[in-house]
Specification:
The structure is a homodimer. By secondary structure, the first copy, chain A, is an alpha/beta fold. The first copy, chain A, has nine helices and nine strands. Chain A is elongated. Chains A and B meet through helix 1, helix 5, helix 6, strand 8 and strand 9 of A and helix 1, helix 5, helix 6, strand 8 and strand 9 of B.
Chain lengths: 217, 217
Amino acid sequence: VPAHLRKISESTVRRLSLYLRALEALAEEGERTASSEELARRVGTTAPQVRKDLSTFGSFGKRGLGYPIPPLVSRLRDILGLSRPWSVALIGAGRIGSALHAYPAFRERGFRIIRIFDDDPGKIGERWGETVIQDAADLEEEARRAEIEIAIVAVPAEAAQAVAERAARAGVRAILNFAPARLDLPAGVVVNDVNLAMELEALSYALGSDDSEGRAT
Amino acid sequence: VPAHLRKISESTVRRLSLYLRALEALAEEGERTASSEELARRVGTTAPQVRKDLSTFGSFGKRGLGYPIPPLVSRLRDILGLSRPWSVALIGAGRIGSALHAYPAFRERGFRIIRIFDDDPGKIGERWGETVIQDAADLEEEARRAEIEIAIVAVPAEAAQAVAERAARAGVRAILNFAPARLDLPAGVVVNDVNLAMELEALSYALGSDDSEGRAT
């Protein structure tokens, strides 16, 4: 198995996302190369960790010269699956759904929300940008027709498992789950849970404990 | 140092949050005790991991009897800092800010958003629930007066560092940062970054790689 196809850990994937952002910022500032020290500083890690993470993907950094930014950006975009657009459905057109739909970083990264579903008759037919909210009853048929690859689940907890199962049956392979419910789906469907209350709990834990300094993540 | 005050890892804190949710759900279902196997199943970990995590906080589980739910819920709430309310300010009253303000789980967990700030004259003075949006120019003074402990930063990237510094000067000790910018703050201020585009990138990475199954987190 080539090194770049070996499984890398979730925390490494997150650092790769951060390196990509740092490198893009450096490019915008006119830089052509980046040292592991500079990347470490911007991302909040150590230079040896940067070198270790990036060494997995080929011989980029030449000692003393730093990493050439444009090829490394393009390599990281490839690895993170950002070199092609993804077809995304938003399931749940409530407040969180609305905020996510308007989130510019999704579109910039190639995550195109091309279908929106809700079961509220007052919302079905409403236009959000270029998309008209569709009846959640048509989820399977419409998701299959649109070849949706990723679903964002932003429905109440009690509805989440059912809509996620229906999305999976329609061929969706990855789910970003904002509902405070654990989804039980067939192997082959990747789930990433975002629980905003838990993010605050990590802070209240840190504030309550003796050693409240540094980053919670 | 007593065991419960020792530093526990971020991933342990997240599992404690998940155990708490699972125990609350079991209590609602009428259960009085929970086995480590049942907790492991609901949280997506192993029974030995559950026993290890919970053993840190005293001798709860009696072999064969399972964990008694009410005292364990109350212990976990204490540990996570949820046994008292927190005074929270929302900085940035845009779409993400609006979704966060309406998020019921924050209030249920005792995170009370008692101040909202924005610099848009069209928004200042608007009422959201029981709170009137205030001018971000008054951030330091108002945050200090209201004894704000946690700030949620939901402003554009380029504004994030400045508002976070001002919040820290006003006595805020923890920041939940939704801006795609790394905040550089004095030691003693805990920062937790939530980057929604990175959550999708973890999925596109998984979809692009050979072993796209299981959970991304």
